[in-house]
Structures
1.
Amino acid sequence: MTVQQADPLELPEHMEPDNPLWRYALAQWQDPQVAEACLKLQSEGWSVSRILCAGWLATHGQSFSGVEDAKVTEWRSRVTGCLRSARKSVPRANDHGVELRDTLARAELLAEQLELALAWQTLKESEAERGIMQESGTIIGQNLVAAAPSRDIPVRVKPHLELLASRLAGQTTRGGPSCS
């Protein structure tokens, strides 16, 4: 059986892998509750990078439309997603696969960094087009809903969205913004 090779993706020449969005993502990932909620949503088909873009924009009073540049979605599909799938295919409980699994996890993290660099470039370029700034606490719920993989948000994921809305907006008290 012959497998057709895809052409390499073209990346912008002047990408910034270490950018404010990446640093925001790293800081948020240090919160175990954020990491756990993001991973639970990822298992439901959500993109963690979309969630983090939505949160970062909210902290800057900006709306997330949910529309992404084609380079971001293509990178996620062809690179980040494939590395994640390969990593998950390697059994955890097998000593022979530990090194491979760890290598794939490092490669997946680098792919996520480049995915966020592509997203950052788009966000930076569209900064002049953004609308009126709003309070981050009022916009985070809307941004997270815009980051959803579909308009129908299952009831089972709403607690994770509520937690993320609270944590990503820097609010740790109950009664934060609604994601319904």
2.
Amino acid sequence: MGAGVLSTSGSASTTERVGRGGRARRSLAGLGGGSYLALVAWVAGAAGCRRAPLPLAPDAAGFALVSAEEFAAAAAPTLPRGSELLALRWRFRDATSSVSGRGAVRVSPPDSLRIDVRGPLGFGRATLVVAGGDAWADPEDLVRQVLPRRFLIWAMLGVVQAPEAALRYEAGDAGARRLVRVAEPDGVATTFELRGDTLAAVVQVRGDRVVGRLTLVRDARGGLVRADAEDLERNARLSFDIQSRTPSGAFPAEVWRRP
């Protein structure tokens, strides 16, 4: 997923005209490699929602080293209380194109999710499944691109997870905002901003430059209704709105299996 919250190495519309009178169609796989992740997001309609503040600059608070266990304890309250099915509408845009569609996300805490998205008019589909340490996707290249940054996919659902290649963990406070930060060997540091037990925003920094931002919007009851992610290195933005959120019992085992 690169350094930013988004990965958008290449872009295109999901439609193109195919022959005279032919249907407009292009698979999501036709988008540039990293753009798969832009399409593996979710989205729609939040009237009356309060917008979260812009993500806090990571250097606005002093940080101290903490253990992996302390980081996990801070992250645990952000997990959903049970399995959920989310219906979404998503939109991705960069300097040259804009594309949108619908999607569904099945979440089974603590570590399993399935994302199904489709493009305009139902054309172009993609599926990603992360079940514990296992993952599969259609198109298959999605796994290779998502796995190194799957913690950011969880963040877009309001869940704090550490990247797999964590170098060190830190924590800090800035007024009412509680911050936890994870540094990776490639020089990227990811700061999660917590308000109470909920995730409000994420900032990614490489050196002294902010390279990615994720802002989450919640309703009056604290439910997540919108996510806005920016990749500042690639001038790209992904947003989604959650149309509905339905509690669910355990999902059938076939939901997690490769077809």
3.
Amino acid sequence: MKKEVVKRYSQAFKQQVVREYESGASVNSLMQKYGIGGHRTVPRWIKKHSLEGIRSEVMIIQSAEDQLEFKAMKKHISELESALAESVLENRMLKSTLDVASKALDVDLKKSFGKKSSPTQQVSKK
């Protein structure tokens, strides 16, 4: 005859699991992490030990000045993102123009750009 194992969890352990749930962990991940077998065990602990059984929400309290500063920062971030996007597009356009010019002139402008020609090369070109 085999004895059945009955697990008893301490109050501190239950509260730790509930805190992890409230900080974003899923019920299934907690059950797997701690080897909790009953599918209703963790939800029951959450209902009993947490704030009304739901994840706690973050509430941000700001003064009027903080709100204005936050809006200004959001606007600034938006402007910076727009400037970055414009810069990326301009960079792509310039690279494409360079590629087209290189093909049209049959010269690799990327390699020869910025190189100074020697005096003998200048004479031969004249």
